[in-house]
């Protein structure tokens, strides 16, 4: 019985890995189709630039200030240790490339 669940776990992990590798393509294709169908690519590029800048600023504020403040409040340690949390490592490993 133990071998069955071990093999089942390996099969599911291979399926999850395949989905994680192909999901960026599945997400990018409809987005690219909508961008191409919009007609004026210059306007879309400007809007995407503004969006990217807003997202990057938001991530810097959230990751650099808010998470560090929460970490300091609860752990009273150096915020640089925040970078070594297991969740951050998993997030970096599963990010689409």
User: How many β-strands, per DSSP?
Assistant: 0
Give the structural class.
mainly alpha
Rg from Cα: 20 Å
Low-confidence stretches: none
Shape: flat
Largest sheet: none
How many angstroms separate the termini?
A: 37 Å
Element order, helices and strands? HHH
**How many structural domains does the protein architecture include?**
2
Descriptive account of the structure:
The protein has 97 residues and is an all-alpha fold. The protein folds into two domains: 1-37; 40-97. It is built from three helices and no strands. The protein has helices spanning 2-37, 41-75, 86-94. The two termini are 37 Å apart.
């Amino acid at each position: 019985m133990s071998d069955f669940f071990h093999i089942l776990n390996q099969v599911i992990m291979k399926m999850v890995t395949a989905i994680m590798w192909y999901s960026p393509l599945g997400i990018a294709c409809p987005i690219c189709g909508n961008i191409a169908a919009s007609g004026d690519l210059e306007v879309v590029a400007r809007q995407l630039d503004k969006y990217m800048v807003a997202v990057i600023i938001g991530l810097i504020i959230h990751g650099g200030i808010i998470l560090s403040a929460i970490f300091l409040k609860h752990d009273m340690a150096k915020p640089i240790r925040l970078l070594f949390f297991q969740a951050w490592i998993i997030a970096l490993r599963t990010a689409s490339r």
